[in-house]
Design brief:
By secondary structure, this protein is mainly α. It has 2 domains: about 1-50, Homeodomain-like (Arc Repressor Mutant, subunit A), CATH 1.10.10.60; about 60-180. Helix content is about 70%, strand content about 0%. The chain is built from 10 helices and no strands. Helix 1 (about 10-25) packs across helix 4, helix 4 crosses helix 6 and helix 5 (about 80-95) crosses helix 6 (about 95-105). It is elongated. The N and C termini lie far apart (about 70 Å).
């Protein structure tokens, strides 16, 4: 009779994801993962041929996590790119290690930044269309300008250099959008 599988691929991936959220992916090794999962390294390498393959699955899970975060984030502002910017900045603050994995890693596992932001529900496309609806003459160019600003602010949260309250952030995003309209 075959031994019952006690540690599943899903268990391994979820444990690796939890470890990544807490300490960053660089701290996830076969040994640390096995210790955290309460198993030997054998179940890990039974379901993954190597740690890079686990990293690929973890990256997909992280993208899905960000996408769900954004989808559930309250959308209170009509100014294009403000809701997306606010969610992105808050995500960087609340989920620093996942943010680093997704948006600051050199290896994006074949995904572009645009693809990760846009997600399955077209978040960026909606914002660009919203800008067009509000009369923006170059909505794609506006996205690039706003995104440079938004990404910079999000990165500043990681170093502790961004400490604005939500209302101040909204005002800054609105002012930036309006200023970029006049360029």
């Amino acid at each position: 009779m075959a031994r019952k599988e006690t540690i599943t691929k899903k268990d391994i991936l979820n444990t690796a994801f939890d470890m990544t959220r807490e300490e960053g992916f660089s701290k996830v090794s076969a040994r640390t993962l096995a210790a955290r999962a309460g198993c030997s390294t054998q179940p890990i390498f039974r379901v993954y041929k190597n740690m890079e393959e686990l990293g690929d699955d973890l990256f997909v899970k992280a993208i899905e996590f960000f996408s769900a975060y954004y989808d559930e984030f309250p959308k209170k502002n009509d100014t294009p790119f403000v809701n997306l910017g606010l969610a992105y900045i808050r995500f960087a603050e609340e989920e620093q290690q996942i943010f680093r994995l997704l948006f600051l890693s050199e290896n994006r596992h074949g995904k572009s930044l645009y693809d990760m932001l846009n997600g399955k529900n077209g978040a960026v496309v909606r914002e660009i269309n919203n800008a067009k609806f509000y009369g923006c003459k170059d909505p794609s160019g506006m996205f690039m300008k706003m995104w440079i600003f938004i990404h910079g602010a999000a990165c500043m949260t990681l170093t502790g250099d961004y400490d604005l309250q939500e209302d101040d952030t909204v005002k800054l995003l609105e002012e930036s959008y309006n200023a970029f309209q006049n360029i």
